[in-house]
Design brief:
The chain is an alpha/beta fold. It contains 12 helices and 12 strands.
């Protein structure tokens, strides 16, 4: 009986911590899995392992060979580009390799040769200098998904941990711009996508969504802002009318203690930091970035390239291992 397709990892920026935490993740998971292959430069990964004193045999492989190889060597799908930058010293010449890994991974997942995508961190400034035209990693994935599968995706960022799951409704924008972007349409669309993917991917029959207000005390009945009354409440009512279990807007400062968290499955917050501060406080090393709204499963460690510690043996693989395990969990039934 053929083995299930593996998970596929991207290298991320090769001068960041992505490649070394992938080596460490293989060491942690080689005995029990789940099997994965990484897209990158086999020679670069071998050299990095030697530099860090890690005993990681690296083997060039095709996706269908990954599961059989996984217990004895790290399977590497060679993207055909040699790495120029050193750990901690990103090189613009490696931008093409970073993008090639992402493009190859999306092709493998869409074509069924891999069952989920786990991305290592990229450095957007390096890609921008090389002419990268997308705002970020997630938007690039959405465009690749549209090109490869014909599905128009509207990605939504979910940060997930065992203790808490959160969604920022506005994401990487200046705080001063967030209120103008917080429209009823955006809230409703985000809520619908979150509810649909929590049902389809996470197996929650009726996901419970809790919305944080934008202003202190959720506006204090209009005394500290009217966004909750004029924008958020109508959006939540629209979601309820569509059958979504949604509550709010609630004061953000009382939403994240243990008793409050027990009353919902995911918290949706108007701004980036309202959502990410609590989850990074509760689960800094184990939170996983999950992109909802794509036609495939994509997870990622909840941290950046960490150039300052790259190549020094200091990077912890915990969040990447959590991302690998969650990608496996979300696609395990489909792989049987």
């Amino acid at each position: 009986m053929p083995s299930a397709p593996p998970l596929v990892l991207t290298q991320g920026d090769p001068s960041g911590v992505g490649p070394e935490i992938a080596l460490a993740a293989w060491m942690a998971l080689r005995a029990e899995g789940p099997p994965f292959a990484i897209i990158g430069d086999p020679d670069h990964l071998s050299r990095l392992g030697e530099r860090l004193g890690l005993t990681v045999p690296v083997r060039a492989a095709t996706p269908d060979q990954a599961a059989a190889l996984f217990s004895e060597a790290l399977p590497v799908i060679d993207h055909g580009r040699r790495i120029a930058g050193a750990p901690g010293a990103p090189d613009q010449a490696d931008a093409a390799a970073t993008l090639a890994a992402i493009e190859t991974a999306v092709t493998l997942v869409v074509d069924g040769a891999a069952r989920a995508l786990v991305t290592n961190p990229i450095a957007k400034h390096v890609l921008y200098a090389a002419g990268f035209a997308h705002p970020g990693h997630t938007e690039f994935l959405a465009e690749l998904a549209r090109r490869r599968s014909g599905v128009a995706a509207r990605p939504v960022m979910l940060l997930w941990s065992e203790q808490l799951a959160v969604v920022p409704i506005t994401v990487h924008v200046a705080l001063a711009r967030a209120p103008a972007l917080l429209t009823q349409a955006l809230i409703v669309e985000t809520g619908r996508i979150v509810a649909a993917d929590l049902r389809a991917r996470f197996g929650l029959a009726r996901p419970r969504l809790a919305f944080a207000g934008l202003n202190p005390h959720a506006g204090e009945n209009g005394a500290m802002g009217r966004e909750e009354i004029e924008i958020m409440a109508p959006a939540i009512a629209e979601l309820k009318a569509a059958g979504v279990d949604a509550v709010g807007p609630l004061p953000a400062d009382t939403m994240f203690h243990a008793a409050a968290r027990a009353r919902y499955d995911v918290a949706l917050a108007p701004t980036h930091d309202q959502a990410l501060i609590p989850i990074k406080t509760l689960a800094f090393d184990t939170a996983v970035n999950v992109t909802l709204g794509l036609p495939f499963v994509r997870t990622s460690p909840d941290h950046g390239t960490a150039f300052d510690i790259a190549g020094k043996g200091l990077a912890r693989p915990n969040s990447l291992i959590a991302a690998i395990r969650l990608a496996d969990r979300l696609t395990r039934d489909a792989a049987r």
